[in-house]
Amino acid sequence: MRLALALVVLVAALVIAGCGGSPAVSSGENLAAGKELFIVGNPERPLPTCGACHVLDTANTVGVIGPNLDSAFGHTKAQGFKLSTIEQVVREQMEIPGVPTYVALNNVDGSSRIAMPSRDEYGFTDTQANDIAFFIATCSGLTFLDQNAPETQAAIGLCSGLPDVPPSSKD
Question: Which DSSP string do the residues of 9-73 spell out, in sequence order?
């Protein structure tokens, strides 16, 4: 009886999770594309870029509104979290719209707050969002890690070898 109840609860949890609008497991593959999208955004959308709001050393961005991604994920990496976990956290954040951007940016409801635009507001495809998440997971917080560790050396090599991207004129 307990096994049947546990199975019912597990199936219900999976169904509920599947209906929440969350993306599938993020599977970014293109660091260079992720970096470019992070810095330039979608040229067809008049929204601030990711880098306009977030600090990320490997993208040379110094945003002051959103969380510092180096600090946020550097500590997480130093604690041993896997890159796939960080990538999925970033990807999930792109799906959570929070306060509608127009309301937040234009202070429509009288509150002083800002919200990160969702992936839909930016007009990013799932592949583009996955590449951004992959770039952030791979290239954030490297200064928080043991600089002599082979994994850190490999990540530094990958991230520093990416092409430079000029900042967007939208920032």
Answer: HHHHHHHHHHTTT--SS-----HHHHHHHHHH--TTS-S--HHHH-EEGGGTEE-SSS--HHHHH
Regions in the chain scoring below 50 on pLDDT: 1-20
pTM: 0.78
Assign residue 81 a region: left if phi > 0, alpha if psi is -120 to 50, beta otherwise? beta
Domains of the chain: which residue ranges? 2-160
At 59-73, the pLDDT tens digits run 999 988 888 999 999
Two structure tokens written together for 13 = 């949890």
* C-alpha R_g of the chain: 18
Residue-level length of the chain: 171
CB neighbour list of residue 101: distance below 8 Å, 6 or more residues apart = 47, 115, 117, 121
Q: If you classify domain 2-160 with CATH, what class do you get?
A: mainly alpha
Token output for 129: 């969002």
